[in-house]
Amino acid sequence: MQGGVGVWGPEGVKTERSNMSNRKTAKELLVDKGQLDDKVVAVRVGKSIVDLHTALDEATVVEPIRIGDPGALDVVRHSTAHVMADAVQRMFPGTKVTIGPCTEDGFYYDFDRPDGAFTDADLKKIEKGMREIVKANAPFRREVVTRAEAIDRFKGLGETYKVEIIEGIPEGEDISLYTHGVKGKEWTDLCAGPHVPSTGLLGAIKLTSVAGAYWRGDERNPMLQRIYGTAFPTQEELDEHLRMLEEAKKRDHRKLGKELDLFMFHEWAPAMPFFYPRGASVYNRMVDFLRGLYVGAGYEEVITPQIYDTRLYQTSGHLANYRENMYFGIPSDSLGEILGSYEEYQKKQGGKALGDKEREEFLTHEIMQARFAGAKPMNCPGHCLMFASRRRSYRDLPWRMADFGRLHRYERGGVVHGLARVRSFAQDDGHIFCMPEQVQEEISRFNKLLYRIYSAFEFKDVHIKLATRPEKRIGTDEMWDLAESALEKALIDAGLAYEITPGEGAFYGPKLEFHVRDALKRSWQLGTIQVDYSMPERFGLEYVGSDGAMHRPVMLHRAILGSVERFMGVYIEHCGGAFPLWIAPEQVILVTVSEKQTQYGQEALAYLRGRGIRAVADLSADKLGAKIRNARMMRYPYLGIIGDREAEGRLIAPRSREAGELEPMALESFADRILAEAVPGGTPPSNP
RNA sequence: GCUGGCGUAGCUCAAUCGGCAGAGCACCGGUUUUGUAAACCGGAUGUUAGGGGUUCAAGUCCCCUCGCCAGCUCCA
């Protein structure tokens, strides 16, 4: 009887009993209620999920979790990760195990393999080995052991990472081991569980990829080999998941950007997008849509410089907190000055060359001392200068300042990704300067505007995160208390559901993050609003209150699309490149059946354009089928087919991207229809 | 930045063991005058990312740099 708490049950499943007779296993509780069947993978107790072997008080309310129930998938995947590690260690002796959790889409397990990376062929082999283990339908057993026992056991196996994990488990917590496999082929892992009762409950398995990952996510630690996989109860569900991945690949905005002539990149401006006319058209329409809404929402747009004296960033705190991500432009005068002082310094040092590190320190210092220009990574400091430029009254507040200025941020090489993470971009940025008592009202107004905009782009699923103070920050704890509670209160007042993410706030203030799910159920962070008491203080911002005294305004940083570039990337994938009529670069392409209709084609094109419709025409000598195919691939919302019949009757035979062929109609009616349909639409998003 | 992989025509991709750089699409010229997802014939297309090395010979092997991809880390 190991650890003094358990006995082996009749089916080899370990049951646990305390000395007190009123304890039963979850399994026994289910049997008592007549709820045990072969689909049960675990039970829910309150908010947590535990496995069938867990000893519980007799009076505990347990709810069975069966295959297909929410929560079951995680248990299945986690158990599948164990089976994978088992297979891997069987096939690749000498490989050490570390951790293997489940993720949103599947699971992974990190290995330390002396022979280096796994190949795709290895994955196939491992999969096969896993299927055999599943087929054996062997039970998972849980046992609780003492710390010393656990350490002994894993030390004996040479599992140094496991030993490290055990040493990190706080005193008083159970140390549990899980073993699965048929006799003689058993495999044990340190794990908190829960796990399925038997490997036979594991369904369709697919190992998807292999990648490097640091031990404990720290880049100073050794790189491990991570194998990603996924598992579903049935092959059909796995196939559906794989089909979604394929669909995501097809919709990848980088691919569509190329195919649809939207944007490009060039290695001479890495991670900085170039928008072709079609892309620029969509981009500008997004921005113009916001500008239209800003009128009603009381925003005023400003235009601010691109490059500033470093003193600006000293004042704002960016130099101290954000320097690694900034570009420092050098006016040619300053370059001369720097080189001059470098030579002088060298002379003083007796002419000997400086070491790399010393030189870097010297030059960095000089750059910061000199009145160097840095490309702005954010608009807020510039806006503070505008606020401070003259005396402000409480009557002017709130002042809602909007700015679509370009920002430059030096992102580390490995993080840039298509339009989603770039080094040159614009935000639909805005800063609201207001009195402290106006903060709540402004947050509420912002929320309304945000939902209005998301619904126009047909993002229906929004979830909110409240990110609180990070370790590296400016401002006092009182300020942070105030700011965090203002955000939380606005959410509670609006009845919006949210999640708190501790330590994720900006260095100058806490923030709300608005995440949306796209058509493929992937989550993206778009909007944000941040409460900032620090920046106004650093810039000495003041306004005259109704009492005649000077007061400090609060600053709200806010964006709805976030980075316009990133939003465009997300939106391209959301709509699969099939832009709705209101935002499509071209709304109509006219297609002539033969060159006989060229003249009417040109007339119709001019007419549509005269009505303000974005139209193009394909008057080439291609056959109709080919022209339609080309137009379909470019995803024009409407095709206007023109043959002899249409040319004679001043008609258009429309073909809608969504609805297919339509009855021929008068050119004028066609134009009316397009104009009527070309409005931002959609139903308001839900907030579950 | 780290680990691994990749970089061949505008695009998608071939090129056996190190042995003549190729195909389709796009493009250009011609024929066809077409009714709802690809007409036909012909033509041009390259610093094989850049630099260096090994070799009689390098797209292919080695080194460096740049860029891209996946993941990690980061994401004010």
Helix content: 25-40%
The assigned structural class equals alpha+beta
- What sort of overall outline do the alpha carbons produce when their principal axes are compared? globular
* Average pLDDT rating: 83
Please, could you describe this protein's structure?
- With 688 residues, the protein is an alpha+beta fold.
- It is built from 21 helices and 36 strands.
- The strands form ten sheets. Strands 17, 21, 22, 23, 24, 25, 26, 27 and 30 form a nine-stranded mixed β-sheet that branches. Strands 31, 32, 33, 34, 35 and 36 form a six-stranded mixed β-sheet that branches. The chain has a four-stranded antiparallel β-sheet with strand order 8-9-14-13, sandwiched between helices.
- The longest helix has 21 residues, at 277-297.
- The radius of gyration is 32 Å and the shape is globular.
- The model is unreliable at 1-20 (pLDDT under 50).
Task: Map the helices and strands.
Layout: E1 6-8, E2 14-16, E3 23-25, H1 26-33, E4 40-45, E5 48-50, E6 55-57, E7 63-66, H2 72-91, E8 96-97, E9 107-112, H3 120-135, E10 140-145, H4 147-157, H5 160-168, E11 175-180, E12 187-190, E13 204-214, E14 223-232, H6 235-251, H7 253-259, E15 263-264, E16 274-275, H8 277-297, E17 299-301, E18 307-309, H9 310-316, H10 318-321, E19 327-329, H11 332-348, H12 356-369, E20 373-375, H13 380-388, E21 399-403, E22 406-408, E23 424-434, H14 439-456, E24 461-467, H15 477-494, E25 498-501, E26 511-517, E27 523-532, H16 534-538, E28 543-544, E29 550-551, E30 554-563, H17 564-575, E31 588-592, H18 598-610, E32 615-618, H19 624-633, E33 638-642, H20 644-649, E34 651-656, E35 660-661, E36 665-666, H21 667-677
Parallel strand pairs: 17-21, 24-25, 31-32, 31-33
Antiparallel strand pairs: 1-2, 3-6, 4-5, 4-7, 8-9, 9-14, 10-11, 11-12, 13-14, 15-16, 18-20, 19-20, 21-23, 22-23, 23-30, 24-26, 26-27, 27-30, 28-29, 33-34, 34-35, 34-36
Helix pairs in contact: 2-3, 4-5, 7-17, 14-15
The chain binds one RNA strand of 76 nucleotides through strand 13, strand 14, helix 19 and strand 35.
